[in-house]
Amino acid sequence: MLITKTDYLEYTFCKKNLWLRKHKPELFEGMEFSDFEKKIIEDGNLAEAACRLLYPEGVLIESHHGQAIIDTKEVMADRQTVFQATFQNDVFYLRADILKCVGPVVDDGIVTSGLGGWELFEVKATNEVKRRAPHHHVNDLAFQKIVIEACGVKIVKAGVIHLNREYRKNGEVNNHALFMEEDLTAEVMAAEEQVRGEMEQMKECLEQPEQAGCACLYEGRSNHCSTFAYSNPEVPAYSVHNFNRIGMSKKKLEDWVDRGELALTEIHNPEDLNKAQKLQYTACLLDKAIIDYAAVRKALDGLVFPLQFFDYEGYGSAIPMFDGFGAYEQVPFQYSLHIMQAGGEIEHREFIITEPTGDLTLPLIERMKVDIDPAGTVISWYSSYEKQRNDKLAELHPEYASFLKEINDKMFDLMTIFSDGHYVDPAFKGSASIKKVLPVLVPALNYSVMNISKGDQASERWEKLISAKTSATEKEKIARDLLDYCALDTWAMVEIYRVLRSL
Ligand code: SF4
C-alpha cells in the first residue's frame, strides 16, 4: 500500500477516516464530489497551471507512478526545473509541484556559500499560508522534504507560492503580481522531526485492525464526515451533537456522551443549556414549534414598505476573471427582487449578466438603482453576504456608494427571526438555514424540483453561461434556470414573511 502526501495530511486530521479510505473504500463508493468541492479542485489545478508560467524553463512530468519516477530523474540530471517531480521512499509517494535547481553561490570564481541543491515549492490556491490540519502547508512541505531527501536529493529551500490577496485584476492577469512566494525553510526544518514521527505512526496505524468508534463522538455535528454514522451506529440522527453551537461547549458534550446521553432529549441537565439550546431542547421534547410571538411581531413591525426581498448570486475563482476583482472575490452576477407593497401586492424584478464585457457590474447596479427604493426595507437571508457585495460594488462604483450604503444600513436579515430563537421548530434541527426553515413553514415550496438547487451549482452554471464554448440555446436555458433559482430564493422569503405575519 502506498501512502501519499494527501494521505499523510488526512491522517493528521483524522486517522479513522484515512484507515476507512484505505481498508473500506466501499464506504465511499457512489459518493460524488459536490459542486463546491469540484470547484476547489479545479481552482487548484488552474492556479498551479498559471504558476508554472512563472518558470518557462520548467518541464512537466506527465507520466505516472514508476515511469514518472524515472522521468523525474532524467529531467533532474539536466538540472532543469521540474513540475510534478515524483519520488517514492519506502511506502511514501509524492509529486512535488515545483522543484528548482540552484547552484552554489560563486563570486569571482570562488564558491562563497552553499553547495547548491534544490528549491521545493508547493503551489496553493489560497490567500495565505495555512498551518492547521488538514491543510497544514508547513507539514505538507516537511513530508515532501523528508521523502525527497531520502531519495538522495538535497532540499536547500522550501516554500509555498500562494495567491496575493491584495492583487486586483486590471487587464491581462499578471501572474507575477497574482502569486507570492513565502520562504518556510526554517519552519519546515523545525517540523521535520515531528512529521517523521507521524509518518511512522501512520504506517503502524494502517497496519492495525479497525478501531471502534471515532473521535467525532466528542465533536459537534458540523465536524462530522460522511462515515460518522458507520463508526457510531448508536448515535441517533438527531443527537446532542446537533445542539446549537455545541462545538463551543465541548465539556457539556463530553459529559453527555460519557454518560451515554446521546439523544437530544435524554440529557440530565437541561437547566445548564444556553438560551438557544434550551429552546431547541424544549421544542424537541414537546415535539412542536416554540414561537416568541411578541418578538416576531416587533421585528416585522419595524420594517418599512415597500418590502424588497432581495438576493444575489455570486461567482468567485482563484484566478480572477474580471477587472477590479481579486482571487476568490465574489462577483455578483444576478439578483432577484420581490417587491411587496403595504396592500400586499407583489411585483418581481430580476437581472442577470449574460455578456461579461466592459465594466461588468455597471449594468447590474444601474438596474438596481431603478428597481430598488431605498426608502423601503431591503430584506435578505444571511444579509452579511448581500452587504459585502454591496460594499464591493460601492468600491468599484463610488458614484453609487451612498445608494448602496443606504440599502445596507436599513437591510433586515429575515434569518435572524430563526437564528435569534424567536421561532424554533424541532424539524430545523438547530439550523436557521433557509433550506431547513422553508420546508417546515412553506412545505409547498421546494428546491428539489429546480434544475439548479444550490448556490455553488448556480456559480458553476454561470461560468458555463458566459463561456464562449456554450451554444446560444444552452446559454438561454442556463439563464432561465438561474433566474428561476434566484427567484425562488426571494419568493421563499416572501412566503416565510407571510407565514410569520399570519402568526
Ligand atoms: S466523523 Fe470525524 S472522527 Fe469520525 S471519521 Fe469522520 S472526520 Fe474522522
Describe the structure.
This protein is an alpha/beta fold and 503 residues long. The protein has three domains: 3-207, Lambda Exonuclease, Chain A (Alpha-Beta Complex), CATH 3.90.320; 215-288, no CATH class; 296-502, Nucleotidyltransferase, domain 5 (2-Layer Sandwich). It contains 18 helices and 16 strands. It has helices spanning 5-13, 15-23, 35-52, 65-77, 137-150, 175-178, 185-207, 228-231, 250-259, 275-286, 293-301, 362-371, 383-396, 401-410, 416-419, 434-441, 455-465, 472-502; strands spanning 3-4, 59-60, 82-89, 92-102, 105-107, 110-113, 117-124, 155-163, 179-183, 290-291, 307-315, 331-340, 346-352, 378-380, 412-413, 423-424. Strands 1, 2, 3, 4, 7, 8 and 9 form a seven-stranded mixed beta sheet that branches. Helix 16 packs across helix 18 (472-502). The radius of gyration is 27 Å and the shape is globular. The chain starts with a strand and ends with a helix. Iron/sulfur cluster binds next to helix 2 and helix 8.
Secondary structure blueprint with pairings:
Elements: E1 3-4, H1 5-13, H2 15-23, H3 35-52, E2 59-60, H4 65-77, E3 82-89, E4 92-102, E5 105-107, E6 110-113, E7 117-124, H5 137-150, E8 155-163, H6 175-178, E9 179-183, H7 185-207, H8 228-231, H9 250-259, H10 275-286, E10 290-291, H11 293-301, E11 307-315, E12 331-340, E13 346-352, H12 362-371, E14 378-380, H13 383-396, H14 401-410, E15 412-413, H15 416-419, E16 423-424, H16 434-441, H17 455-465, H18 472-502
Parallel strand pairs: 1-4, 2-3, 7-8, 11-14, 14-15
Antiparallel strand pairs: 3-4, 4-7, 5-6, 8-9, 10-16, 11-12, 12-13
